[in-house]
Amino acid sequence: MQNNLCQQCPNIDQCDMDCPALSALNQICKLQLVEQKTALINEYAKEIGLTKFEIAPDLKELGDKVLSAMPEFAFIKGRGVNIGYLRSFENKKANGKTVFAECRIIKGVYTAYLPFDFIITFYQFAISALTDNQLKVLMLHELKHIGLNHKGYYLVPHDIEDFSDIITKYGLQWSALNQDVPDILETH
């Protein structure tokens, strides 16, 4: 079975059977469960040295929209805070709970190498089940971790399990499967 990908393969002359790589990709596509797909992709990624992270322009665009729509974030744009947005293909858990995203501050020697003050990482496995509106609330949640005081930038901890104003506006279960939440960009 040869196709366009086979024509580009440097081993085409030695190939007398179906390509193992294409067979593996077909197997991944046929799987229905995200967990199985993620496990297989991670296994193959290790074998061929692929990264588990990528720069996420779509999430940056969403972050910019949320920042512009929420007056509480005026200091971020006003002070030129640089935020990097990453997508991770890892399945991350903490304290037995799925991690959807996390915000990190860039400190120390890393500031010499990275053009960002903060990096927000979204875990694709977890966010793939979120609706567009839930993803917007998640972005709001992560941006609320960015703080500025007289000493400089810092990570703002949750004031409760989440941020109380997010729970008040969107409910305790805003990230639950099939949860209907309002579009935060239309309500401002």
Question: How do the strands and helices of this protein lay out in sequence?
Answer:
Elements: H1 4-8, H2 20-30, H3 34-48, E1 53-55, H4 57-69, H5 74-78, E2 83-88, E3 93-94, E4 97-98, E5 101-105, E6 118-123, H6 124-127, H7 132-143, E7 146-149, E8 152-155, H8 164-170
Parallel strand pairs: 2-6
Antiparallel strand pairs: 1-2, 3-4, 5-6, 7-8
Structure in a nutshell:
With 188 residues, the protein is of the alpha+beta class.
List descriptors.
188 residues; alpha+beta; Zincin-like; 4-stranded mixed sheet; two-stranded antiparallel sheet; 8 helices; globular
Give a description of the structure.
The chain has helices spanning 4-8, 20-30, 34-48, 57-69, 74-78, 124-127, 132-143, 164-170; strands at residues 53-55, 83-88, 93-94, 97-98, 101-105, 118-123, 146-149, 152-155. Helix 4 crosses helix 7 (132-143). The strands form 3 sheets. The protein has a 4-stranded mixed beta sheet with strand order 1-2-6-5. The longest helix has 15 residues, at 34-48. The chain has 2 domains: 4-48, no CATH class; 53-170, Zincin-like, CATH 3.30.2010. 38% of the residues lie in helices and 17% in strands. Strand 7 and strand 8 (152-155) form a beta hairpin. It is α+β, with helices and mostly antiparallel strands and 188 residues long. The protein is built from 8 helices and 8 strands, in the order H-H-H-E-H-H-E-E-E-E-E-H-H-E-E-H. The model has no long low-confidence stretch (mean pLDDT 82).
